[in-house]
Design brief:
Strand content: under 5%
Largest sheet: none
Number of strands: 0
Radius of gyration: 30 Å
Number of helices: 7
Structural class: mainly alpha
Length: 170
């Protein structure tokens, strides 16, 4: 599922674009109001006061729309970051655990669990190493069995992996 598949991201993106469009429109209207005030300015009134009094409502609206744009940008960034694909490996998981040890508040994010390789990831890495010739068949089977034992995977899962292995490399 892509980023635009998430309804929250779509809604924020549409809101952001509409708010930017409104911001530009209000800014243009403010400039037109200021220019028209210049044309009708009386001789005794300071020019800066005339411009400011004509553009003040538009400036306030622009500031409010700017705050909405900033909020939508932050929300959109957070939503995209939450959907980002996180790489999974042991080194990242160790670093994330160290950060969580130093900053206990970081545990609420659960980063170490997000980057910890799953059993399937570890099996895929083991298969890749075997296919590339880094390890032999006996080593592959031994490590696969150790992985299954360490992770508490059922014997059925081990047998299924062994059958897949045998079919792939016969």
């Amino acid at each position: 599922m892509g980023l635009l598949g998430d309804s929250k991201v779509k809604a924020m993106l549409v809101g952001l674009l509409l708010t930017i469009f409104a911001l530009v429109g209000v800014s243009l209207l403010g400039m037109l109001a200021a220019l028209s005030a210049l044309g009708s300015a009386t001789g005794g009134t300071p020019l800066a006061f005339v411009l400011l009094s004509a553009a003040a409502p538009y400036i306030v609206i622009d500031v409010l729309l700017g705050l909405v744009v900033a909020g939508l940008l932050v929300g959109l960034s957070v939503a995209i970051a939450q959907q980002a694909s996180m790489p999974r490996n042991d080194r990242l998981a160790r670093m994330a655990r160290k950060v969580e040890n130093y900053y206990p508040e970081a545990k609420s994010v659960g980063l170490s669990e997000r980057v910890e390789p799953t059993t399937e990831d570890r099996i895929d890495q083991l298969k890749q190493r075997y296919v590339e010739g880094e390890i032999g068949e006996a080593e592959y089977e031994r490590r696969l069995q150790e992985l299954m034992d360490d992770e508490g995977v059922s014997d059925e899962r081990v047998r299924r992996e062994q059958r897949q292995f045998d079919k792939q490399f016969e």
